[in-house]
Design the sequence.
């Protein structure tokens, strides 16, 4: 039987199954104690004051934009090398999206490009209301540098930390929001820990936390202090804003809480596998991931770049050869400005030379805690063969 090696895969233990079954046998499948417990545990783990669980990081990003008041006429900037959700959250609010080219070394949004774009935007009066840096592959973006620019130009910061739960920036957990207004995590099965589908927004602001919790559940409050009228009776509640139903279920939260106990072990294992890749690939014409020794990457992805004069052709052939071997390599990501549904914004790919070059060279190799040494050796030997054939 030919083996298939995915680029990412969840790990579900007996303890996870038991935690979920316990909820299924309990009184509450949703809006019970598990969601509150998962929020509290995650807030404690990363050192943020408030945590709001939702049904996806996409939903949490939308809540974050709404809580920060993003609306028509506003601009939101993010990295083009990300999942579409990092940009769509602004569009849900009727705002415009723009992109900042990536750093050729980290593949995160470039601080120099951001500084230059902000200076130009100040002259034209088109400054962003929010900037959404993405910790691509789990490698922390330089948050202190973005904070300094935010203080100068007056924008808010939402960290898209979908890849970065369990990582650390300058020795402090990603998600503590020391430099940002809100941080968002994803618990999709390919990410570091999972709830099936799920997301979470963290913040140190009581007001942002309150607004996100309100909008997460129909904009309905049962707190008399928030109501505009005197309660008609004990049944009374008020809708005071147009919210969504983005709630996480207790079934999902129980899985997340159980997975959270293994978060540090998963990040350690991912780093161990990444270091092994670095060694095995050291004599091949590929660029291995950069990391800043001051930070801890959660290593959601292990991205290599093909070094070749004809990178675009070689890239595609290597990709196809690995897929033919059952190695389900992927490309994270197609630059978002290339998506047909973003055509109305009129982006010119030539404005993002680093992202374009990245797109012609990047391949995500399989990386997940259950990847065996043998499988990793097979990935590397297949890559070696594919590179020598191009
Ligand atoms: C996965 C991902 C999202 C969306 O996460 P969901 O939980 O699937 O909605 C957003 N941004 C990035 C960078 C992601 O990788």
Sequence:
């Amino acid at each position: 039987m030919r083996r298939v090696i995915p680029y990412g895969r969840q790990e579900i233990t007996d303890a996870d199954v038991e935690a979920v079954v316990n909820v299924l046998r309990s009184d509450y499948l949703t809006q019970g104690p598990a969601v509150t417990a998962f929020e509290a545990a995650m807030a404690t783990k990363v050192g943020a004051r408030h945590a709001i669980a939702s049904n996806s990081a996409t939903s949490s990003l939308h809540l974050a934009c709404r809580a920060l008041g993003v609306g028509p006429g506003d601009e939101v900037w993010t990295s083009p090398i990300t999942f579409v959700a990092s940009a769509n959250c602004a569009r849900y609010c009727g705002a415009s999206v723009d992109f900042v080219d990536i750093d050729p070394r980290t593949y995160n949004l470039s601080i120099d490009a951001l500084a230059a774009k902000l200076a130009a935007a100040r002259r034209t009066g088109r400054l962003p209301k929010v900037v959404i840096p993405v910790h691509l592959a789990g490698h922390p973006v330089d948050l202190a540098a973005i904070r300094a620019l935010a203080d100068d130009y007056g924008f808010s910061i939402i960290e898209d930390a979908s890849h970065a739960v369990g990582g650390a920036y300058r020795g402090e957990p990603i998600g503590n929001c020391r430099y940002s207004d809100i941080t968002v995590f994803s618990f999709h099965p390919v990410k570091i820990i999972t709830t099936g589908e799920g997301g979470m927004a963290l913040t140190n602001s009581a007001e942002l936390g309150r607004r996100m919790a309100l909008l997460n559940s129909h904009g309905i409050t049962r707190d008399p202090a928030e109501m505009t009228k005197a309660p008609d009776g004990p049944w009374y509640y008020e809708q005071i804003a147009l919210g969504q139903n983005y709630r996480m279920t207790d079934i999902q939260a129980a899985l997340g809480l159980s997975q959270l106990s293994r978060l540090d072990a998963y990040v350690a294992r991912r780093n161990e596998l990444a270091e092994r890749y670095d060694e095995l690939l050291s004599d091949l014409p590929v660029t291995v991931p950069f990391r800043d020794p001051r930070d801890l990457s959660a290593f959601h992805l292990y991205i290599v770049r093909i070094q070749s004069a004809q990178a675009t052709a070689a890239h595609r052939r290597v990709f196809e050869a690995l897929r033919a071997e059952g190695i389900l390599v992927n490309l994270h990501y197609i630059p978002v400005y290339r998506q047909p549904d973003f055509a109305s914004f009129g982006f010119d790919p030539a404005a993002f030379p680093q992202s374009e070059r990245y797109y012609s060279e990047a391949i995500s190799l399989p990386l997940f805690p259950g990847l065996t040494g043998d499988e990793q050796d097979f990935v590397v030997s297949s890559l070696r063969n594919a590179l020598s054939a191009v």
Observations:
- The longest helix spans residues 263-280.
- The pocket of pyridoxal-5'-phosphate is lined by residues 56-58, 82-83, 85-86, 134, 160, 162-163, 186, 188, 199 (CB under 6 Å).
